[in-house]
Amino acid sequence: MSGPGFSHDLRQRQTQSLVLAPQLRQSLKILQVAALDLRSVIQEELQANPTLEELPMEGESEQPDEGETPAGDAEEGPEGESATADAATSSEETDTREEMDFSKEFEILGKIDEDWRDHMASAGGTQQHTAEDAEKRQHFFDSLVSETSLQEHLMQQVALDELAPPVLEALRQLIGNLDDRGFLAQPPSDVALQTGLPYDTVLEALKLLQSFDPPGIGSQTLAECLLAQLTTRGRGESLAARMLRDHFDLLSRRRIPELARKLGAAPDDIQAAIEEIGKLDPAPGRRFAEDNNRVVVPDVVVEKDGDEWKIHLNSDYIPRLRISSTYRELIAKGTLGKGERDYLRERIRSGKFLIDSIEQRQRTIERITREIIKAQTPFFEQGVSQLRPLTMTQIADIVGVHETTVSRAIANKYMKTPHGVFEFKYFFTTGYQAESGASVSNTSVKEMLADLVTLEDRAAPLSDQELVAKLQEKGIALARRTVAKYREELGILPSNLRRDYK
Prior knowledge:
The chain is α+β, with helices and mostly antiparallel strands.
């Protein structure tokens, strides 16, 4: 009896797969992050791309480098060489701008999301869990321990020293004044005034705090923090330390030619020092357990000016970037080898794409905000009770992008309005149609429900059925179970528990 036979053959099979280019992934990331997080994303690219440099914020004066021209005038290089350099990047730049229209990719992404959810829904519920599994799971949760906070880590080090009571009290006050980065939130003089401790004692405690682990803790500025880390490594007199100590403003804007001139160093040495600084920790306190409370910074401020609503995009946390003319001129001179020239051109294209992505992000947020204002004008005029039902699909159709683009653009973002600060997602809500034909959002219905309970007679509170009748008088037809659900979501007790028996 012969065994089973085996054979090898070649077959062609055509399949579709979604592959996002690195630049497209970067655009999606920039579109999705909040204003506070965007700066760190851009700073990472600044560290990785030597052709990018940061301009001063608006209102700050800038002195151009000798022989350096603004980025917009860089095309006028010697003997038309720069025109060649620009021609080498113009086609790629056109391709880059075309890549910015990624609505097709979003359609595929949306389909993948739906398929994945369907798969998880069908896969779930079939797995059997025994009592032993439940016991193991509970043991796992019981074994979890909380991470050590920055304050706990520092107080453990305080306990190792025998300190005079005033210095110990000053140390405790200073540790309590550290922000999540590990920086001192108030100057020592303010700490001394608020606590009544001698200023010299506070300074002595600060010096001790700055000797603790992690290096850089208790600093008052970023430059001081990074310099402390270099000093701990025995690099306190290095070129990197001199840049931090004497020319931090130029360093933060990556003005390599001017740094080289002022420090008397070669540009390559300046670049190496910048890379050394880039490996330091700009926020040594964040490696510890983070506070769950987040600072909310509005990405957009909406204000009324006369009869018109004005939109102000928050650009305070977004660095102003440009392509360094130094590297443009290096390409234009034609003295670089092919490998160096290709590398710089690729970095320049990447830098231009980053700048375009930031501009595209701001334009998209502004357009979506403008359409939200049009759709929710009654809310902006009168308040929460006038919020209308609105879907992302409606806004996407008007703006001319895919629904997933709107979803990413509003993620983690907040809008400041005359009625408070709201997450962008707050304005997208389902709703009901009143008897008058007007649409009413479920958020507005909850607001009406809360108002009815606030105004009720405490001796005879309204039952859920009576609340249904009251809403019916306002033209809102809801089932009793829906009213009960909304009441519970609002944290309102049933009528028998709201009764005042006085």
